[in-house]
Design brief:
- There is one protein chain.
- The chain is 34% helix and 28% strand.
- With 317 residues, it is α/β, with parallel strands linked by helices.
- The strands form three sheets. The chain has a six-stranded mixed beta sheet, sandwiched between helices. It has a four-stranded antiparallel beta sheet with strand order 2-1-4-5.
- A hairpin with a 2-residue loop joins strand 9 and strand 10.
- The radius of gyration is 25 Å and the shape is elongated.
- The structure holds adenosine-5'-triphosphate (ATP) and magnesium ion.
- The site of adenosine-5'-triphosphate has 13 residues, from helix 1.
- It holds the Pfam family ABC_tran.
- InterPro entries: AAA+_ATPase, ABC_transporter-like_ATP-bd, ABC_transporter-like_CS, ABC_transporter_ATP-binding, P-loop_NTPase.
- It comes from Halopseudomonas bauzanensis.
Length: 317
C-alpha cells in the first residue's frame, strides 16, 4: 500500500519553549503517503511537540513543514483540513453530547453535514448507543473513542494518533488496531506514538525513534529488526563450568547462570554465523549440552539499546 511519495515533509524543525527548554533539535522527516509510521521515544522525548507543530497547535521556532505541499504556517487552514488529530490529552467540552461533538468538529473544517458517515463512524467505534450522552457521562475509554470519532469526522487523509491506546482495555486496543488497518487500506496515512512497543511491532510499516528532541532514526520496521536485531544461541550445559573453555576464547560467548549456561551472541545477517564451529569446538572439548535454544532480539530491546546509546553519547560529549 505504501508508496515512496512524501505527504508530510519536515525539515530542520526546532522548538524552544518559552521556558527556554529546547524540545526539538532540527528534525528532518519525510512521511510517506499511505504508510503507518510509529514514533517511539521515552517520556519527554518530543513526540507530542513534533505532532503538535505539524498539526498547527504549537508554533515551530525554526524549520519548515509542508502537508501535501501546503506550508503549515502560510497555508494553515488547507494543511490542517487534511489532518485528523487524536490528542494525548482529553480536550472535549464535557457538557456536549457525543453527537454534538462529532458534528461540530466536522462543521469546523467546513465539510457539509453527512449523517450517514458520522453514524457509521460512531457504530464502528461502538459509540452509537451513547450518541445522546454528555461527554462527562462516559468512561475514560469511551471518551478516548470519541476523540477518535472527532478526529475522523471531517474525513482526513492523514491521521495522527498520540498514544491512542494508553489506558484502554485489551478489546478496544484490538478494535483500534483493526480500525487503523481499515483506514490505511482506504489510503489514509497514519502516524502514531506509543509506549507499547508490541503495538509498533504489530502495526507500523516504519519506525521513528526520538530521544531528547532528536530523531535518532527512521527505518522500515523489517529492516530495523534485521539490521539491529541480534541473535543469541543459549546452550544449557550438563555440568556447570568454572571458566570459558579455551576453544571458545575470543568468541562472543559468555558464561552465565553460575556457569551452567553459555550464551553466544551473533549477527543473524552474516552468512557465517559461527554456530556450527562453536558447537563442534565445544564437543571436541567434551562439553555436553542439556538443551540448545536460539532467540532473536525484539523491537523493544532494539529500541532500549538505541536510546541507551544516544544517552551515553550525550553524556560523553
Ligand atoms: N508548553 C510547554 N512549555 C515548556 N516545556 C514544554 C511544553 N510542552 C512540552 N514541554 C517540554 O518539552 C519536552 C517534550 O515534551 P513532549 O510532550 O513533546 O514529550 P513526549 O515525547 O510527547 O513525551 P510523553 O511520552 O511523556 O508524552 C518535555 O521536556 C516537556 O517538559
Ligand atoms: Mg506525548
Amino acid at each position: 500500500m505504501s508508496t515512496s511519495e512524501t505527504v508530510i515533509a519536515v525539515s530542520g524543525l526546532g522548538k524552544v519553549y518559552q521556558s527556554g527548554f529546547q524540545a526539538l533539535k532540527s528534525v528532518d522527516l519525510q512521511i510517506r503517503r499511505g504508510e503507518i509510521l510509529a514514533l517511539l521515544g521515552p517520556n519527554g522525548a518530543g513526540k507530542t511537540t513534533l505532532i503538535s507543530i505539524i498539526c498547527g497547535i504549537v508554533n515551530p521556532s525554526s524549520g519548515k513543514v509542508t502537508v501535501d505541499g501546503y506550508d503549515i504556517t502560510r497555508d494553515y487552514r488547507r494543511a490542517r483540513s487534511l489532518i485528523g488529530l487524536v490528542p494525548q490529552e482529553l480536550t472535549n467540552n464535557l457538557f456536549d453530547t457525543v453527537w454534538a461533538t462529532v458534528t461540530l468538529s466536522r462543521g469546523l473544517f467546513g465539510k457539509p453535514p453527512n449523517r450517514a458517515y458520522l453514524e457509521s463512524l460512531l457504530r464502528d467505534l461502538s459509540l452509537w448507543d451513547k450518541r445522546n450522552e454528555k461527554m462527562m457521562a462516559l468512561s475514560g475509554g469511551m471518551k478516548r473513542r470519541v476523540l477518535i470519532a472527532k478526529a475522523l469526522a471531517h474525513e482526513p487523509q492523514i491521521l495522527f494518533l498520540d498514544e491512542p491506546t494508553a489506558g484502554v482495555d485489551v478489546e478496544l486496543r484490538r478494535d483500534m488496531w483493526a480500525m487503523v488497518r481499515t483506514l490505511r487500506d482506504k489510503g489514509v496515512t497514519i502516524i502514531l506514538t506509543t509506549h507499547y512497543i508490541e503495538e509498533a511491532e504489530e502495526m507500523a510499516d516504519r519506525i521513528g525513534v526520538i530521544n531528547r528532541g532528536e530523531l535518532l532514526l527512521v527505518e522500515d520496521k523489517a529492516v530495523l529488526m534485521r539490521q539491529l536485531g541480534k541473535r543469541q544461541l543459549i546452550i544449557q550445559l550438563q555440568q556447570p563450568l568454572t571458566a570459558l573453555p579455551a576453544a571458545v576464547a575470543g568468541k562472543t560467548v559468555e558464561l552465565t547462570d553460575n556457569g551452567s549456561t553459555l550464551v553466544y551472541t551473533f549477527d543473524a545477517q552474516c552468512e557465517q554465523t559461527g554456530v556450527g564451529d562453536l558447537l563442534r569446538a565445544l564437543a571436541r572439548e567434551g562439553v555436553e549440552f542439556k538443551d540448545v535454544n536460539s532467540s532473536q532480539s525484539s523491537l523493544e530491546e532494539i529500541f532500549v539499546g538505541l536510546v541507551h546509546d544516544s544517552n551515553q553519547q550525550r553524556s560523553r560529549a
